[in-house]
Amino acid sequence: MNPASPAVPVSLRRFRPFWLYWLTRVCLTSGFQILTVAIGWQVYSLTGSALDLGLVGLLQFLPRVLLVLVVGSVVDRFDRQRIVTVSLLVQAAVAALLGLGSAHAGFAVSRELIFALSVLIGTCRSFDMPAMQALLPNVVPPALLPPAVAAAASANEAATILAPALGGFLYALGAEFTYGLDLTLYLGGALLLSRLAVRPSEPSQQRMTLDSLLVGVRFIKSRPDILGAISLDLFAVLLGGATALLPIYARDILHTGPWGLGLLRSAPAVGALLMSAYLMRFPIAQRVGRVMFAAVAVFGLATIAFGLSTSFGLSLAALAVLGASDMISVVIRTTFVQLETPDEMRGRVSAVNSLFIGASNQLGEFESGATAALLGTVPAVVAGGVGTLLVAALWMRLFPTLAQRHRLVQGPAADTAG
After folding, report:
1. What is the average per-residue pLDDT within 395-403?
2. Which among 306, 301, 298 has a CA at the least distance from the CA of 324?
3. How does the record say this protein sits in the membrane (predicted)?
């Protein structure tokens, strides 16, 4: 079915353009997840430093901060498919370079090379994440957007389940095999994207001025519920995120190898995928504010449980619960943004939203690494979980309308979706 057709499909399952989009997103996310596993294990093997693990996350995050306003304007002014395609090809080149270095094809992978390529990866992610988010409403009609948001999130989680585990197993054979798979995924994603037909959108005609760059910031600021939701996710995951320390847990606490690291990286996505499947079938329709805050509290408790665990099975279970609870806030936040933002400014709003996501993940990895270097690994993770609980309690007081919000979209906001 052509996405430009005025007819609205009855079911997302039969809407072919969305599934091309979904598969592209699987390739993009799988590639990034495999890079994360391989780079994390490689840099820790080279240096044995928790701080260096955190620095990798920080270096991937910094381009998002520096480019956030420019990225949003670029995504609104230029072809979003082309932006993602270029990002996929650049990251394919990064994977090829790391693969050649790991195979000692004339040079070797070093700490400095990993740091430099982490900046390049972060730059690519700065563009491809908001571009993919802004592209979705041009792929599916507004009537299918809520289930499409949950299904698109499931693409990330499906990739995060399979890719890190597969990457970890391949790494045991040699890092070059892991990077070879990564290269294949990025090239496959670019091919799929080239076959995706989308509804044409009118590029923003605003000149790239400081005022136009700040539109996304002002829009989010003018919607207290959206601001509260994305900032809650930012600080909760920033404090509670322990993914940067998984190589330490895998090797020194749980006593597994790269395969164990891959499974640990996949565990949050297992829980998140199951939750996204549930939300596709049973969307959150009532008391969304209370549900979101309860989910953040569960996220904090699961983080504490993981931090204290010395059992591989219990650690996997805690991470799965952590991922399931995080998925709830992801779906709520993304639905807010997509349904309440006009198409001509979706790039700028998505760029700001992407910055919050990046801050909670990559900056959270740096925070975890730095805290672990100061306090020790287990105290750092437990303290992060406690911090998440405190943030949830504080945000309920700072954003009372969000805590009391009954529906995802209410009032005139729903009308802007079209």
Report:
1. 86
2. 298
3. Multi-pass membrane protein
The answer as to whether 8 is a domain residue is: no
Q: Which of 129, 164, 197 is the last residue of a domain?
A: 197
204 located within any domain: no
**What CATH number did the domain enclosing 384 receive?**
1.20.1250.20
3-state helix, strand, coil in the chain (%, to 5): 85, 0, 15
Task: List CB contacts of 307: < 8 A, sequence separation 6 or more.
Answer: 242, 378, 380, 381, 382, 384, 385
Structure tokens at 79: 């072809």
Looking at the fold, whether 288 and 376 belong to one and the same domain comes out as yes
Q: Are residues 221 and 365 in the same domain?
A: yes
Range of the domain at 23: 14-197
Same-domain check for residues 192 and 218: no
Same domain flag for 227 and 347? yes
> Would you say residue 221 has pLDDT above 60?
yes
Residues 266/316, Cβ–Cβ less than 8 Å: no
Residues 370 and 286 in one domain: yes
| Residue 203 is assigned to a structural domain of this protein | no
Question: Both tokens of residue 265?
Answer: 């990286």
- Cβ proximity of 338 and 137 under 8 Å: yes
Least confident of 60-69, 150-159, 332-341: 332-341
- pLDDT at residue 413, as a whole number: 39
Phi, psi of 324 (to 5 degrees): -65, -40
My answer on whether 179 and 299 are in the same domain is no
Q: Is residue 250 part of a domain?
A: yes
CB distance 332 to 288 below 8 Å: yes
- List the one residue out of 47, 204, 189, 220 whose CA is nearest residue 124: 189
Pair (29, 83) in one structural domain: yes
Tokens of 276: 């996204």
Residue environment code for 63-79, b if the CB has 16+ CB neighbours within 10 A, otherwise e: bbeebbbebbbbbbbee
Report how many helices (DSSP H) and strands (DSSP E) the chain contains, helices first.
Answer: 17, 0
Q: What is the pLDDT of residue 5?
A: 40
Which tens digit of pLDDT belongs to each residue from 239-256? 766 777 888 888 888 888
Question: What SS3 state is found at 405?
Answer: coil
